[in-house]
Design goal:
Chain lengths: 336, 342
């Protein structure tokens, strides 16, 4: 089939079936709608605490997980809802977690910042910037020693690349040739601090040189570009050739968290990035290459809407955890 | 609130109502204006104004050379502050959440706390570290801890926990005049609390507790936000004929032995209330201090500790509340204690 495709066919169109591509777009919608639903629930007082929305970064999360199966692992971040959905989580149990319910993925103990789905290989979001990097290397060490063939994708932000944990993790992954792919979602800011002000190198991918691994920078709002870079990096990891660093250039449309007043960036910059909406670009690509019609795409979006509405209803009706069980799960076997 | 507070504000000093966060900002403003050596360092303390809006607009007044946004590098950032303090600057380092000081333990515990001693007194480390702490914000296990007792275990560090806007300002100014590292644990739920704050410069002495309410029937030694819960409980108890004396510890290293022991000798009953995990915490130290002293002979009932539950802080709001002492817990413990006799 590849022979029949014109020369400038995007990687994803050549690599994935129409069903896979439509499922990927559906997941991107699901993430977008999930974030909007979470935001609205927060505003209506149904969710407490804070949250970090990934609206605008959907191609990065979904594109990065395209080459993974259920046996593969990810480690995620405080901005982790999208990663969780991309790795196959059930949005009902995600909402239940955000609503603090026993039916949530963490039985209401973790909330947004600790969302996880261990069965599907998501070892968890993280409240600590950079906290997931060494853990991903540990998961890769397990996979190598136990011969599972699993690859670990480690998501982290541009801000995390200035933590010591980043440098220590990349070095160990490289010296031990571990099956891990480091995915830096560079959305230009760690909270209010731009990469220009926080990071000595212009491209974070060049830090791969210091740890003798391949490093590439891709347009993180281009689903095909992300999935192409990840395809190569995951294949390399599976073949036992060691880790890679993929820098995915993207942008968060919303503030850092619910308390951000956006004083560090301009309205024009935000508008400029919103015009590069990863979902619109993916939909256009599918139409342009005859993968899906506009009607089909509208159907995908409507389906995602329905799934989110149902998930929120499920979460609302869940049971609260019992206060008497507040010390449950501190240890595997309860201690006095 | 001013009773025996031990503030060294001149009596003629006028006061205004400020929030706890505003009081801290005012202290930093005074220090930045008065002393070129003072710099602020931390994550998002510049144009963002700090995660809890404590530094606020200071960057616009003093510029980015003195209000320095660090990369997300707690170990490095805290270490830079330590090195700068050893060599002439007076850094005030803000951890965005005190939880992230765990990433900087090396520089705080191995370096800042010990370098003076290890070098036989040849250097000092006049660094101030600000630590937003505590639960109640729904931010779950990695953003809600009360780790002050960990740091208080380390000789070389001083650890304070202001409970009022007045003390938040006075203790910060005192920390800046102190030649040794001072860690200030600020409870996040107190940032918006208002109180009378003296204008201008004054010091709240490090190492001095404050008696917030006088009483004769039991002593409640509390820290930080628990002082307010203890005072609320004390008011209810007064209606029941139980007069609780509430001691605000304010500094947990060095502890003000005299104030605590004096109160226990008077009331003969002791309840310790703190948000950190109950076991191996501040309450254990206070209890042992009493047990090892003559005040022990005055006790009419076993000492009671109320501390955080033996678990991380959970996300669900009901569980989160249940994980730290609340007013009804204090009431229940105080009633039982007041009725008891050994
Ligand atoms: C060790 C640590 N330091 C600071 C924080 C506070 N914090 C949470 S997210 C964040 C910014 C992270 O930036 P980046 O890694 O670029 O991720 P993004 O938020 O842009 O997705 C900061 C400073 C934290 N959670 N953990
Ligand atoms: Mg970022």
């Amino acid at each position: 089939m590849p022979d029949l495709l014109p020369e400038n066919t995007p990687f994803a169109i050549a690599r994935y079936t129409p069903d896979e591509l439509k499922a990927a777009l559906r997941k991107m919608y699901l993430i977008r709608k999930f974030e909007e639903g979470a935001e609205e629930s927060y505003t209506r007082g149904l969710i407490h605490g804070t949250m970090h929305l990934s609206i605008g970064q959907e191609a990065s999360a979904v594109g990065a997980c395209m080459a993974l199966g259920d046996a593969d692992k990810i480690t995620s971040t405080h901005r982790g809802h999208g990663h969780c959905v991309a790795k196959g989580a059930d949005v009902s149990r995600m909402f239940a977690e955000f609503f603090g319910k026993e039916s949530g993925y963490c039985r209401g103990r973790g909330g947004s910042m600790h969302i996880a789905d261990v069965e599907k290989g998501n070892l968890g979001a993280n409240g600590i910037v950079g906290g997931g990097l060494p853990i991903a290397v540990g998961a890769a060490l397990s996979a190598k020693r136990l011969g599972t063939g699993a690859v670990t994708v480690c998501f982290f932000g541009d801000g995390a690349n200035n933590e010591g944990a980043f440098h220590e993790a990349l070095n160990m992954a490289a010296i031990w040739k571990l099956p891990v792919v480091f995915v830096c979602e560079n959305n230009k800011y760690g909270m209010s601090t731009s990469t220009e002000r926080s990071t000595a190198v212009r491209r974070i991918a060049t830090r791969a040189d210091a740890y003798a691994m391949p490093g590439v920078t891709v347009d993180g709002n281009d689903f095909s570009a992300v999935s192409e870079a990840m395809d190569a990096a995951v294949a390399r990891a599976r073949a036992g050739e060691g880790p890679s660093l993929v820098e995915s250039m993207t942008y968060r449309w919303r503030g850092h968290s619910k308390s951000d007043r956006n004083r560090y960036r301009s309205k024009e910059e935000i508008a400029d990035w919103m015009a590069r909406d990863p979902i619109t670009r993916m939909a256009d690509m599918l139409v342009e290459h005859g993968i899906a019609t506009r009607e089909e795409i509208a159907g995908l979006e409507a389906g995602a809407d329905r799934e989110i509405a149902e998930a929120i209803e499920f979460a609302k009706t869940g049971e609260n955890p019992k206060v008497a069980e507040v010390t449950r799960d501190v240890y595997t076997e309860a201690v006095q | 609130m001013n009773m025996d507070a031990g503030t060294l504000a001149r009596p003629e000093q006028e006061t205004r109502e400020l929030s706890y966060a505003e009081a801290i900002r005012e202290a930093m403003d005074i220090a930045l204006a008065a002393d070129e050596r003072v710099v602020l360092m931390g994550e998002d303390i510049g144009v963002y104004g700090g995660a809890f809006q404590v530094t606020g607009d200071l960057v616009h007044k003093y510029g980015t050379d003195r209000v320095i946004d660090t990369p997300i590098s707690e170990l490095g950032g805290a270490g830079v502050a330590v090195g700068a303090a050893m060599t002439g600057l007076r850094p005030i380092f803000e951890f965005q959440f005190s939880d992230f000081a765990t990433l900087a333990m090396e520089q705080i515990v191995n370096q800042a706390a010990k370098v003076r001693y290890m070098l036989g007194g040849a250097v000092s480390v006049p660094v101030v570290m600000r630590m937003p702490a505590g639960s109640g914000t729904g931010a779950a296990a990695q953003h809600s801890q009360s780790l002050e007792a960990w740091f208080a275990h380390v000789p070389g560090l001083k650890v304070v926990q202001p409970s009022t806007p007045e003390d938040a300002k006075g203790l910060l100014l005192a920390a800046l005049e102190d030649p040794d590292p001072v860690l200030i644990f600020e409870h996040k739920l107190l940032y918006k609390m208002k109180g009378e704050v003296p204008a201008g410069h004054y010091l709240t002495p490090i190492g001095k507790a404050a008696i917030r309410r006088k009483g004769t029937d039991l002593t409640i030694v509390a820290t930080s936000i628990m002082v307010h819960k203890a005072l609320e409980a004390a008011q209810t108890l007064a209606g029941e004929g139980i007069e609780a004396e509430v001691v605000d510890l304010r500094t947990i290293r060095p502890i003000d032995r005299e104030t605590v022991l004096g109160s226990v000798r008077k009331t003969s009953r002791l309840l310790c209330v703190y948000e950190g995990v109950k076991t191996l915490g501040i309450g254990a130290e206070i209890s042992a201090m009493v047990a090892e002293s003559d005040a022990f002979d005055y006790l009419d009932a076993p000492i009671v500790r109320l501390g955080g539950a033996e678990c991380p802080i959970p996300y669900n709001p009901d569980l989160e509340r249940a994980a730290v002492p609340q007013v009804p817990d204090i009431l229940q413990a105080a009633r039982a204690l007041a009725g008891e006799r050994v």
